[in-house]
Each structure stands twice: as C-alpha cells, then as structure tokens.
Amino acid sequence: MLGRTLELLRGIDPMELVADPRSRRRALDLLREARSTGFAEGELRLKKLDGTAFPAELSLLLLADETTRTTGMVWRIHDLTER
C-alpha cells in the first residue's frame, strides 16, 4: 500500500508518510489523542514511496507494558481510494 518493504518502514518517523500540511496537522492531533486516551482514529492523506498520495483511514493503538509504561504504537491503515 505504501510502496515500502517492512525493512523500510521499521524505525521510520510516521510523519514521513503524511502527504500534506493539513494531513500532518491531523496526524499530530491523532498522535496526541492516542497518547492521551490509548486510541485514536481518523482520515488523512498518506504518500507512497513514489510520492503519490492516497486517502486513508488510520486507527492508532498505544502499546504498554505491565507497568502501563508506553512501549510503542500500532497504526492500522485502511486505503480509502476505492471509496
């Protein structure tokens, strides 16, 4: 979907995948919400490795260890191009 292998996605700053300033602001809002509540979802535009953009629905889920310390975040991306 993003035109990148798993190796290229590991450790990448998620903001590198955001296609435009409006979507960047929305992504930052989603990150803040996920860090605050543990979950967030919304729509924005993402870009592929070749620079083309597509509409996507994101669900962000905060991951924590047994002491509730944040250990990561999962982003589920649903391509909305066909919608």
In a few lines, what is going on in this structure?
The protein has 83 residues and is an alpha+beta fold. It has helices spanning 6-9, 21-37, and strands at residues 39-47, 53-64, 70-79. The protein is globular, with a radius of gyration of 13 Å.
Give the rounded overall mean pLDDT.
92
List the helices and strands in order: HHEEE
- CA radius of gyration: 13 Å
What would you call the structural class?
alpha+beta
Biggest beta sheet summary = 3 strands, antiparallel
Strand content: 35-45%
Q: Output the number of helix runs.
A: 2
Helix content: 25-40%
How far do the termini sit from each other?
15 Å
**Low-confidence region ranges:** none
Number of strands: 3
Strand arrangement in the largest pleated sheet: 1-2-3
What is the overall shape? globular
Describe this structure in words.
A hairpin with a 5-residue loop joins strand 1 (39-47) and strand 2 (53-64). 25% of the residues lie in helices and 37% in strands. The chain has two helices and three strands. Strands 1-2-3 form a three-stranded antiparallel beta sheet, with helices on one face. The longest helix is centred in the middle third of the chain and has 17 residues, at 21-37. The chain has helices at 6-9, 21-37, and strands spanning 39-47, 53-64, 70-79. The protein is globular. It is α+β, with helices and mostly antiparallel strands and 83 residues long.
